[in-house]
Structures are given as C-alpha cells and as structure tokens.
Design a protein that fits this description.
The chain is 41% helix and 6% strand. The protein is mainly alpha-helical. A two-stranded antiparallel ribbon has the order 1-2. The longest helix has 14 residues, at 45-58. It is globular and about 40 Å long.
C-alpha cells in the first residue's frame, strides 16, 4: 500500500488528499522495484506528463489523438458517474 501523507517540506492540497492506495500485481511489483519513486519527476510533473504522453503515442496506446494522461483521472471519474458510484467513494481515489 502507498500512504499519501503530508511531508515536512510539502503539504497536501486538501484534507481528503491524505489517503491509502492499495497495490496489487504490476503496480505492487513496480513499487517494490522503484521504492523511492522517480526523483527526476518530483519537482516537474509537466515533464512526467510529457514523458508518459510520448510513450503512449510512440507505442500506439492513445485511444484518440486528443487523449492525454492528464485526462485519465477525469475519464475515471466520468466512468464512475455513469455507473452511479456514490460521490464520496468516487472522489476518494482522486484525492478530492
């Protein structure tokens, strides 16, 4: 599991951003391998987004040309809305 907690030099966006993220299978293995995360992206999320978008484009993984990694959490929330998932349950994984 990953615990999202405030750090001495960084605060969370809001109270509900504090959360626990369960990991299994591929995500658990990635966490075990890269336990400290990816330091190159700690200060620049825009470069992380650009790297992921390039990977998706290069490997033919974009559903549409407009698709970006930034839209993924919004799509996730939209899918939950369509499934009539309760708002509190829907927003917790996104840290809202």
């Amino acid at each position: 599991m990953i615990w999202i907690e405030p750090e001495p030099d960084r605060e969370l966006k809001n109270a509900t951003a504090r959360r626990v993220i369960p990991l299994s299978e591929v995500s658990l293995e990635a966490f075990r391998t890269y336990r400290q995360g990816f330091p190159n992206y700690r200060t620049s999320l825009s470069s992380l987004s650009a790297t992921i978008n390039k990977y998706l484009r290069t490997n033919g993984l974009k559903e549409t040309p407009e698709y970006t990694i930034y839209g993924l959490p919004h799509s996730f929330e939209d899918w939950q809305l369509e499934a009539d998932v309760d708002e509190r349950i829907r927003r917790d994984p996104m840290g809202h």
